[in-house]
Amino acid sequence: MTAQSTGFDGQIHGFHFVNRFEFSFDLDLPLVHSIDLGEIVYGLCGGMCFSALDYFYAGRPIPQQRYIARAGTSLHLRLVDRQVDSLSLPAGLLKVLEWMILDDTEVGRRTAIQEFPKLRRKMARGDPSVLCLIRQRGVSDPGKNHQVIARAYTFDERASVAEIALYDPNHPNEEPWLSIDLSNPRRGISPAQSSGESLRGFFLMNYRFEAPPAS
Q1: CA–CA distance, 201 with 155 (Å, rounded to integer)
Q2: Cβ–Cβ under 8 Å, residues 102 and 135
Q3: Best exposed site among 72, 134, 135, 202 by fewest CB in 10 Å?
């Protein structure tokens, strides 16, 4: 059994309120023109993950409030800004759409062969990673995919099963995890989440540190 932790603890370093936001944010994309980000993103999961890592790497405590950040407040505006950053527009959004249209076998193969090894290398350096969880098929409802922080993992070499511990903005103050079966990636990875949501696979998002605002 192999185990690796990064030191990120969702109950300490994650936000204590749930990811339930409604917002409108217009932006321009090539070939698409103006779109409302609020129509394609459910909540601010990416903004919450990026911001949580900002505080973690800055060595500063995260805001301790347990109520959802109200629209127009400095924290809410920060989360919206970091949500946009998390998507690495347009490349990040296009990658989400690309993975959505792949069949389950290919999503699983890429998760196992490309993304999980990247995750292991990052965690070996002590770095938690933001994952984009692919849940949807086709091109409808990209906002129902999700972003979380992978903070630790275990790998059972005998069973070839990995369990990845998460900070999930949809489940604050909990310890959710996901599992994948790596015994035969070309036939599928049987992805599952302890919190019960559907899961097809995942890829790592490109996080870059941005110093959090002074408290």
Answers
A1: 17
A2: no
A3: 72
Angle at 37 between CA 33 and CA 40, to 5 degrees: 105
DSSP single-letter state for residue 67: S
Q: Can you tell me the distance from the alpha carbon of 113 to that of 186, in angstroms, rounded to the nearest whole number?
A: 9
User: Tens of pLDDT along 177-211?
Assistant: 999 999 999 899 999 999 999 999 999 999 999 99
d(CA 3, CA 133): 22
Q: Among 74, 93, 85, which residue's Cα sits nearest to residue 31?
A: 93
CA–CA distance, 24 with 183 (Å, rounded to integer): 43
Q: Give the relative orientation of helices 74-86 and 45-58 as an angle to the nearest 10 degrees.
A: 100
